[in-house]
Amino acid sequence: MITNETTEKFRKLKLPTPFYYYDLEVLKTTLDVIKKKASESGFKLHYAVKANHNPRILSLIASYGLGADCVSWNEIDAALKAGFRASEIVFAGVGKSDNEIINAIEADIFCFNCESIPEMEVINTFAARLGKKARIALRINPLVDAHTHKYITTGIAESKFGINTWELEEVLKKLTDMKNLELTGIHFHVGSQITRLSVFKTLCNHINELQEWFSVRNSELKIINVGGGLGINYDNPEELPRFDDYFSLIRKFVDLRPGQTIHAEPGRSIVGQCGSLISKVLYVKNGTNTKFVIIDAGMTDLIRPALYQAHHQIENLTSAGETENYDVVGPICESSDTFARYIELPETRRGDLIAIRSAGAYGEVMASRYNLRDLPQVVFSDEI
Ligand SMILES: *Cc1c(COP(=O)(O)O)cnc(C)c1O
């Protein structure tokens, strides 16, 4: 909640807008809950750093004992600096560069989540050159539709992600000759902002079939990694994600074999609700049929609405007047720079403070300098 007291502080301190406001209490509560629920269900978690790599947020998450799921060497480096241990870092991504692979082998990270045979060959070559053995997991394309936006659906047939099941026979054959790779398990990720939990049940059924396939071939898997993707409720920024339902459902439907551990890589569900983008109203402008609230935050600060037609709850923190309908737009020279259309807000005026809620995930990390704009500022709840 952004209380009146907090809003007063924003005003008094004349904090320059736009800025990301991170409520550390919300993040701690979320971490307390996810940690408890994960340990009750026997999950090892690796936080998906790409959702938010702000150093303070990373350190707080590291202090709760989670591992890190990274998609670039720079993310691994940031995770290490924030206190995550190399032995608890996994490295995913379809296009790992040579330098990234070499750095990660030298850092002795826990595991590479491999997405293709050519990638395995390259990791094997560099590991041999460095006289090391690299642990890998196979990211398998599970052919599960995530029922989410197409840009964040990753596990369908013509997806660039993951190894297709028809290629697995060859993968195992090649692995026997790749002496510097050690297969630890299998990894999946079907998409993001998944709110239909049945999607994860379908994933579990595929995992069970694949487990059979591997066991027939005497290939031992120590780790089953279900990836990330648990959605949050953008309509209710105060609501915590359904961690309990999510972990229990997976434990119920996935057949773990003796000695196996289950891993997950939540990103959005950990950091989504702790962040809000705070912006100031520059102008209220009349269109032919529409009233536009033009704010000083744009798609360069939060691109999700422009990129995925994402919905965020928008609140006017400084007005309690009669409501009217407005389009809330940014200043960028693109029509897609629209945060919401025809939403009800209390009567809004120049100078009002606007909060765009549930912006802790894929917000600050995706900011750009298009139009040569400044990057958004960051304010933590314990700084004001
Ligand atoms: C993006 C990603 C995640 C995190 O997804 P969320 O939807 O933010 O939980 C986890 N694992 C992999 C491999 C990813 O690419």
**CATH top-level class of the largest domain:** Alpha Beta
Radius of gyration, CA atoms, in whole angstroms: 22 Å
Straight-line distance between termini? 15 Å
The helix tally amounts to 11
CATH topology of the largest domain: TIM Barrel
Written overview of the protein:
The chain is of the alpha/beta class. The chain has two domains: 128 residues, Lyase, Ornithine Decarboxylase, Chain A, domain 1 (Beta Barrel); 246 residues, Alanine racemase (TIM Barrel, Alpha-Beta Barrel), CATH 3.20.20.10. 31% of the residues lie in helices and 22% in strands. It contains eleven helices and 16 strands. Strands 1, 10, 11, 12, 13, 14, 15 and 16 form an eight-stranded mixed sheet that branches. An eight-stranded parallel β-barrel has the order 2-3-4-5-6-7-8-9. Helix 3 links the parallel strand 2 and strand 3. Helix 2 runs parallel beside helix 9, helix 3 packs across helix 4 and helix 8 packs parallel to helix 9. It is elongated.
